[in-house]
Amino acid sequence: MQKTLKKYFPIFVLPTLAAFLVSFAVPFVSGVYLSFTKFKVVNENTWVGLENYIKLFTTDKTFMNSLWLTVKFTAVSVVTINILAFALALLLTKGLKGTNAFRTVFFMPNLIGGIVLGHIWSLIINGVLGYFGVDITYDPKYGFWGLVILMNWQLIGYMMIIYIAGIQNIPEYLNEAAAIDGATPAQTLFHVTIPMVMPSVTICSFLTLTNSFKLFDQNLALNGKSPDTSLLALDIYKTFYDHTGLQLASWHGIGQAKAVIFFLIVALIAFIQLRATSQKEVEH
To answer: What per-residue confidence (pLDDT) applies to 32?
Structure first.
């Protein structure tokens, strides 16, 4: 059996490997190269070295603002989504009546497209704040918290399902042993439940972190017209498409440089997060 697998392994791997090279590896390498060039069309570019990266921090005034806003948004979203999703998972594993219906209802927002979600919440929030003369599209403070609410509403149900799976996999004898030893519900939660669902914490933290950092379509639909509420992905998009004229080639190069830095930041933070939470799994 092993010899047969080794013999036909390249044949079965080839389609996936070809798709990976065509859709990810080649465009990624090409994108890194283009970040060091001026270009209007990909096939017509001029090498400029680090000029795009220098202009990114000197000429472009929106990059650092968008980066800082994205970091704040990600930090708030990761904490709130995971805490609320875990709390719901605990509640919906208590055998309450109608549990399956509640799980379905909480999960449904994750099935709605980002653009649709952005427009829905724009109508809802502006409908409420309109009485106070506030427009979420242009107010940075309300725009930020509008994005946080939208992100929570979309992802809490998804993360809740993962936490439910982790909680249901906890051996019952551990809870029974804790009860026999006289542990309080809080002690059982922090010394049995949470340590045992650390694999779920790792997965949910990774998903919420990467999805928050890469948020684009919801941001575009909810308050994309305001430069003060543009997260990093939307700022990169605007760098490409909001500039015209003779300097278009320069801005394309700067936009590509932003995309490379964006990738490095997300990859680094995701790696650190996975390593930190995975070590907790080993300890427990």
So the answer is: 92
Q: Are 231 and 148 a contacting pair, CB within 8 Å?
A: no
User: Tokens at residue 16, please?
Assistant: 């996936």
C-alpha count within 13 angstroms, C-beta hemisphere, residue 109: 20
**Rounded to the nearest 10 degrees, how much is the dihedral formed by the CA atoms of 89, 160, 102, 74?**
120
Other CB atoms within 10 Å distance of the CB of residue 184: 10
Q: Residue 110: what pLDDT?
A: 86
What is the pLDDT averaged over residues 84-96? Answer: 89
Contact criterion met (CB below 8 Å) for 158 and 152: no
End-to-end, the C-alpha distance of the chain in Å comes to: 37
Distance in angstroms (rounded) separating the CA atoms of residues 98 and 193? 23
HSE-CB of 116 using CA atoms within 13 angstroms: 6
- Residue 44, classed as helix, strand or coil, is strand
Predicted local confidence at residue 74, as pLDDT = 94
CA separation for the pair 75, 172 (Å, rounded): 34
DSSP 238-250: HHHHS--STTHHH
Nearest to 45 by CA among 59, 60, 32: 32
Q: Are 140 and 66 in contact (CB under 8 A)?
A: no
The predicted model scores a pTM of 0.84
CA dihedral 207, 117, 80, 235 (to 10 degrees): 70
| pLDDT beyond 90 at 88 | yes
Nearest by Cα to 106 from 123, 93, 124, 89: 89
* 163-to-55, 57, 178 alpha-carbon distances in Å: 44, 41, 21
For the chain, how many helices (H) and strands (E)?
A: 14, 2
